[in-house]
# Entry
Amino acid sequence: MYERYVGIELSKINNIMKRNYRKLDEINDSDDELTGKNGWIIGYIAENKDKEIFQKDIENYFVIRRSTVSGILKLMEKKGYIIREGVSYDARLKKLTLTEKAWDYVSKTMEKVDEHEEKLRSGLSDEELDAFLRTLDKIKHNLGQG
# Structure
C-alpha cells in the first residue's frame, strides 16, 4: 500500500488540465467545436511549419494510436483545418498542411496557451522543472511509451 499513488495523482492532474483547456476551446467561436486534441495538433503543426509533418509524426509525438489519429485528422480535414498533400518522393505519404482557418485559430489561442504554460511553471525553479520533466520521461519509459 502506498501513501500516494502516482497513477491517481497523474489522473487528477489530467482532469484539471482538461478542465483548463476546455476554457481555451471556448476561444474558438466557430460552430465546428474544435476539440483540445485538435488544437494541440494544430499547434504542433504550426510550431513545425518549416518541416513536413505526417500522420506518423502526430502519432509519435502525442503517443496516440494510428486509428485514433486517422479519425482525428479526417475530421479536421472535413472541418477545414488541415489539408493532406502528397509528396513527390513517396506516393504513400501525405503531409499535413494548415489552412487559413487553422492559422486564424493559432493566432487566437497561442497567447492563451502560453499564459497557461506560464501558470503551470509558476513557482518552479529551472532545476525543479528539469527534474519533473525527466521524471515524466522515466514514467513514460516505464509504461513502454518513452
